Each structure stands twice: as structure tokens, then as C-alpha cells.
Here is the input.
Amino acid sequence: MPTITVSDTTFDKLKAISEPFVDTPESRISRLIDDEMNRLSITADREGGIRAQPHTDTSLHLNPDSHDNLAFTKVISATIDGRDLHRPKWNSFMHRVHLEGFRRLGSFDALKRATGARLSQERLDDDGFRYLPEGEFSIQGVDSNKAWDHSLAVARAVNLPIMLKFRWRDREGSAHPGQTGVLEWNPPRSIELASRQISPEQAQSLRTRLKSIEQDWRDPQMDVYDAI
Here is the structure.
């Protein structure tokens, strides 16, 4: 059996992410490897051979406005404005979205109006707050559901494309144990009115009429019409 030598620092990190009295070094490393193989769509056969699986996306693509419960989920990957985040988590994703929102909006007050997150211009490190030096403000940590909702509000305010891929943990209380989910929002595409022979006055009239059915249109039950 091969022997692997790790530094004391690496071993301390391994202990920090392991569950006491349950994990052994080998079992924790094995789970880390399994997670990475799943992310890369790689499988091992019974003889120990390694092969890549053909890419078939079986992820659940959720409605960004009325998503399923995100409790007991682990973020797999995330992008903000097309840029990948390194080892993202729900709150680190929310932090990056708010920093980009702050940059685009240009002021703390504008950001505070755009989000439902608790923000402070003071340097706080209690009650779940995290100080973000890039924006010189503190933001309170939240659960996965609120992390997405607050991020979506800011993304909408500044037309910022965002995407999260995550997996529900295989445990009681998960909405979809063991399954992968995707949450994504992209700014609406602009339409050149003149090319469609629509005047600004006609566009405003159309927008007003459509506003009356907006709530019904966003109802998750309307998704069944996409299959027609």
C-alpha cells in the first residue's frame, strides 16, 4: 500500500475539516477525492481504472425568484459576471456580489438600498458580521437561502450576471438529497426599438400593460408552459 507524507501544517488543516471520532485521515481524504471526481465527472470502475463520464447535465435548474429550500447544500462552483470564484461558499459569494454592486453603484447608501442584507460602515466582527476592506463596510453572514436572495437583489440592481452550482447533502432535511442544483440570473437582453418599428411611447404603453401580469408570469406554476 502506498504511503503519503504530508507536512504538519497540511495535517492540521486536514484535522480542522474532519469530524472528531468519525473521520480518519484516510476517510477524510477519500471524501475530498470523491467530491473532486464528482465535480470533474470522473468515475473509478471495480478494477480501479479511471475514466471520464460523458457530460450529461442532470442538475435541477431552479427559479431564481422562488427556489427550493437551499438548506444543507454545498457550493460546487460560482461565477460573477463570467468570472469563476475560487473555492466559493454561500457567504463568500454574497460578499463578492456586494463588493461588485458597491463598485458599480458608487456609494454605500445606494448598495444598502439595493440589498436586504445587513450592512454597516463600521468595522464589525461580531454577530456574524464580516468586514470587507475592499468596500470599507461590514456585512452580516446569513444562511444559504438569504445569501442567494440578497445577492440576486444586488445583481438585478446593477445588471450583474451570477450563477451558482451546488449539491444538496445526502441527509434528512435536504430538499433533494444528493442532487445538484443550479441558480442563475442574467440581465434581460436589450431590444433595439427602431429595428422593430416600435416608438418609445409604444414601448412605455406595452411595459405598463405587461406590468399588470408580472406577478402571474413569475409564478413557478407558469413553468409548465415552457414545455408546450
